[in-house]
Each structure stands twice: as C-alpha cells, then as structure tokens.
C-alpha cells in the first residue's frame, strides 16, 4: 500500500525549488537588512526628518505581499524594464524586509538607555564612536530575535513568488502533486523541508542568543 | 581650574539654572548639596558639555566649554564623570569597559590600554573581576568600575553625580572609600552628594543649591556645621 510514483527525479525537482527559496530568502534578507539598518538608525536618530520615510515604508508593510509582486511585475512591463522574475522577486521582497527591518532596528536603537550614551560621550567618544561601540552592539542584541522571526517569516512568504512565475519549493511541490496525484506525500515532504530549514535558522539564532544572555 | 560664571540654563520654558558662579581650583574638592530638582545634575552636565547653556560661561583650564570652536570630545577627556546610574556597558567585560575609551579615544594599543585598565581596576579593588560581565557585579562594584573607567582616561577633574544614591546602604561605604582615596590623591573633584558626613570630611568647600542658584557656599564647617541661611539649615535638618 506504500507504493508511490514519487521518484528520485521528483525529489531533486523539489530540492531545486528549495534552493530557489533559500536564494530568495538570503538575497532579500541581505538587501533588506542593509537598507533596514540604515533606515532604522535614521528613524531612531532623526525621528522628525524621517517621518516621510516611515510613511513610505508603511506602504510596504501594509499592502499584502502578493499584491506588491503582481503590481511591481506589471509596472516592470509598463516601464519596459527587462528584469528577470527573480530580480523582481528580490526587489519586492527586499523592500518588504527593509520595511520590517527598519522597525526592528529602530526599536533596538531606542532601547539603548540615553544615560549609557551620555556615559560613553562623557568619556570622550564622538557621536559616531558611541554609535559604533555602544549603540549598535547593544541594539543588535535587542533586535536579533525580531530579525530571526523576520527571516523565518520571509522564508515562507517567498512562496508567493510563484505568482510571478518562479518555481520555488512550494510551486515545485504543487507541480509534482498535479502530476502524480499524491498531495499528502508531496506536501509532507515540502513541509518537512521548510521545517528543517527553519529549524536550522532557529537553532543558530538561539545559540547566539544564549551566548549573549550568559553575560547578563 | 573650572570657572563657572553666571550660567543660565533652561529646558524649554523652565529655567533650572539661574545665574550660577563657582570656581574650583586645581586639587580642590567641592561638594554640592541641595534638594532634588535644584539643578545640581544639570550643572555637572553643562560642565562637560553634555548639556548646552543659555548664557554665561564655563571655562575648563581656560577653554570655553560651550564656544563654537571647542573640541568638546577632547575637553571631555580631562573631565571624568560618574553618574547615579552605574552605566556599565553591558555587552563588554569589566576589563573591556575600562579599555574602551583609552583605545577608541586615545588610540592606545591593546596592550597599553589593558595595562592601564588592569591598574585602575586593581586600584578600585576589582582586580579579580576583569573577565566578568558587569551584569554579574553588585551595584557597588559596578559603580567602582565606572570610577575606574573614568580614571583610565587620566582626567584632571572628576565629577560625581550622586554616585551612591542608587546603591543599597551596605554598598555605599565601598564607593565612598574609593572617592575618598581619590580626594586624598589630590584629584580635583566636584561631588553632588546627599552623604553630608562624607561631604564634610573630604570637601574643601560645600555649596548649597536651591532653585538653580548657589544659595550658600563656604567651608564644610561653615555651611554644614553652622549654616548662615535658614533654608540651608532646613535642608540639612530634612535629610538627617
Ligand atoms: N532633559 C530634561 N528636560 C527637561 N527638564 C529637565 C531635564 N533634565 C532635568 N530637567 C529638569 O530640570 C530641573 C533640575 O534637574 P536636575 O538638574 O536633575 O536637579 P537635581 O540634580 O538637583 O535633582 C528639574 O526640574 C528637572 O525636572
Ligand atoms: Mg540629580
């Protein structure tokens, strides 16, 4: 009764999809984290003058990702950009991560007590030395759990790129389901792969966190 | 020498320092006492430029603290300040806390900064806590670390803002002893404190602050022992 038409080739196809999921996650997290650190620090340190930035990023946080993908893809054709679907996916996901990461970084920076910054400035550290040596390391510890959650969320949200024609883990699985008509088996395999990927991230994150917590 | 001349300072509409003048000579220990909200902390912040002033002037060794051209980071190197909150940098070990400024600000080598930090930490009795993170220390130890951290910059002046107010009573003594040691070494100090007996012991002069003004100033025996103004006497009675 456990006979299945699921083949080695199918598994490879799914794993290729998983690789696309990983790539999309990594690239968009890199883009979004770099931009998010800059925007988040700016939001925390210059709250007044960066209010328009907050409005803009709110758009990317509030509009469902699916709509962003489809709209950006349409925009691409209208403007005549010759971008691959993968590039579009990275840009949209990157902006999405930027929007969330900005908030994570902002609250991390704001969590550093003003009295600590005064103490470091009173030792003669310049504004930038204080940011670099005190604010950023402390903010990182506060922001890190939120950043890991963002990463785990984005890994799952990448599934939406199938709507602009990219074959990632979920899409690959669906293709095989359609062909061999064994949805339970295939989706279990796909789910297991998501689970393993998340587990690795969560474990690495937890290890880093405990190392930091030992100090408190 | 620290020369404070007719300084005014406001937060928005609220004027908290209303024309304070005070001179502290090299080697002198001046204590500032006074009720909460009288502007004592604000004055200390103004002395090293952590707060701006509205008018008047503050000079440290002849340098205008609040003048445009002043390199404030450079000036702060010679003014150590210890706050009521211990302000340990929690992500750095005790040793790293003390090494940070000598390395970053003075550009000392790692070995040099470490030797300096070990010396200062040993001096305040923390020679056995070098690799520990501040979170593992008692409040008194953290405050002594903060003192060592300030001293590692070899400051010419030390300002203390109620350095013992946030400590459990049994830990106050060890921090006061450290401060006393500094005074005996000839450090120029301004102490904002509620420890009247300590202030009387170590100070050359005591200033009583009230409503953003120096209300009475003189030797400890005058101001604490025999206050001339009724408000000073009231304040001293209120905290005993
Ligand atoms: N950053 C600030 N913004 C607005 N008001 C402040 C600020 N810091 C202090 N104050 C006000 O200034 C007055 C003097 O405060 P402070 O210098 O801390 O007094 P003290 O140290 O003598 O208790 C208080 O009324 C306080 O509320
Ligand atoms: Mg105060």
TrEMBL record, chain A:
Source domain of life: Bacteria
How is this protein situated with respect to the membrane? Multi-pass membrane protein
Subcellular location per the Swiss-Prot or TrEMBL entry = Cell inner membrane; Cell membrane
Instruction: Please report the stretch or stretches of sequence annotated as the ABC transmembrane type-1 domain.
Output: 18-205
Q: Which InterPro entries match?
A: AA_ABC_transptr_permease_3TM (IPR010065), ArtM/GltK/GlnP/TcyL/YhdX-like (IPR043429), MetI-like (IPR000515), MetI-like_sf (IPR035906)
Q: Where are the transmembrane segments?
A: 20-46, 53-75, 81-101, 142-164, 184-206
Q: Which UniProt keywords apply?
A: Amino-acid transport, Cell membrane, Membrane, Transmembrane, Transmembrane helix, Transport
> In terms of one coarse class, where is the protein primarily found?
membrane
Entry similarity comment: Belongs to the binding-protein-dependent transport system permease family. HisMQ subfamily.
Q: Could you tell me what this protein is called?
A: Amino acid ABC transporter permease
UniProtKB/TrEMBL annotation, chain B:
Q: Which family does it belong to?
A: Belongs to the ABC transporter superfamily.
A GO molecular function held by the record: ATP binding
Residue span, ABC transporter domain: 2-236
Q: Please report the record's description of how this protein sits within the membrane.
A: Peripheral membrane protein
Q: Which InterPro entries match?
A: AAA+_ATPase, ABC_ATPase_HisP-typ, ABC_transporter-like_ATP-bd, ABC_transporter-like_CS, MetN_ABC_transporter-like, P-loop_NTPase
User: Where is it mainly found?
Assistant: membrane
Task: State the CDD domains in the record.
Answer: ABC_HisP_GlnQ
Q: Report the locations given in the UniProt record.
A: Cell inner membrane
Keywords attached to this entry: Amino-acid transport, ATP-binding, Cell inner membrane, Cell membrane, Membrane, Nucleotide-binding, Transport
Protein name per the record: Amino acid ABC transporter ATP-binding protein
């Amino acid at each position: 009764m456990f006979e299945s038409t699921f083949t080695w080739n199918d598994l490879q196809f799914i794993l290729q999809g998983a690789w696309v999921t990983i790539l999309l996650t990594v690239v968009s997290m890199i883009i979004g984290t770099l931009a998010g650190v800059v925007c988040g620090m700016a939001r925390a340190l210059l709250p007044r003058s960066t209010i328009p930035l907050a409005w803009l990023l709110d758009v990317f946080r509030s509009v469902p990702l699916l709509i962003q993908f489809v709209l950006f893809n349409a925009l691409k054709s209208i403007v005549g950009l010759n971008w691959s679907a993968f590039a579009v996916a990275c840009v949209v996901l990157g902006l999405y991560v930027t929007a969330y990461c900005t908030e994570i970084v902002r609250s991390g920076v704001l969590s550093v007590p003003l009295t600590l910054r005064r103490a470091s400035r009173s030792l003669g550290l310049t504004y930038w030395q204080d940011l670099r040596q005190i604010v950023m390391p402390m903010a990182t510890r506060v922001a890190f759990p939120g950043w890991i959650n963002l990463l785990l969320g984005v890994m799952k949200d990448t599934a939406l790129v199938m709507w602009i024609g990219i074959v990632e883990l979920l899409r690959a699985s669906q293709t095989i389901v359609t062909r061999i008509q064994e949805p339970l088996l295939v989706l279990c395999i796909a789910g297991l792969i998501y689970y393993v990927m998340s587990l690795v991230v969560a474990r690495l994150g937890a290890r880093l966190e405990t190392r930091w917590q030992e100090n408190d | 020498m620290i020369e404070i001349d007719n300084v005014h300072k406001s937060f928005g509409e609220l004027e908290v320092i209303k024309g304070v003048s005070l001179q502290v000579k090299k080697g002198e220990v001046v204590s500032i006492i006074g009720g909460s909200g009288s502007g004592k902390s604000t004055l200390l912040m103004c002395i090293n430029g952590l707060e701006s002033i509205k008018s008047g002037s503050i000079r440290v060794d002849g340098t205008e603290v609040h003048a445009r051209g002043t390199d404030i980071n450079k000036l702060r190197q010679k003014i150590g300040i210890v706050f009521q909150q211990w302000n340990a940098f929690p992500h750095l070990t005790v040793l790293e806390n003390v090494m940070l400024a000598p390395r970053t600000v003075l550009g000392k080598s790692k070995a040099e900064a470490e030797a300096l930090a070990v010396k200062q930490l040993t001096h305040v009795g923390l020679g056995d806590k070098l690799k520990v993170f501040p979170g593992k220390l008692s409040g008194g130890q953290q405050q002594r670390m903060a003192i060592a951290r300030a001293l590692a910059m070899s400051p010419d002046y030390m300002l203390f803002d109620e350095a013992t107010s946030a400590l459990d009573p049994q830990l106050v003594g060890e921090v006061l002893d450290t401060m006393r040691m500094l005074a005996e070494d000839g450090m120029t100090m301004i102490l904002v404190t509620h420890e009247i007996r300590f202030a009387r012991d170590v100070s050359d002069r005591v200033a009583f602050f009230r409503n953003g003004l120096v209300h009475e100033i003189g030797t400890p025996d005058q101001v604490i022992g025999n206050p001339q103004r009724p408000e000073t006497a009231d304040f001293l009675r209120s905290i005993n």
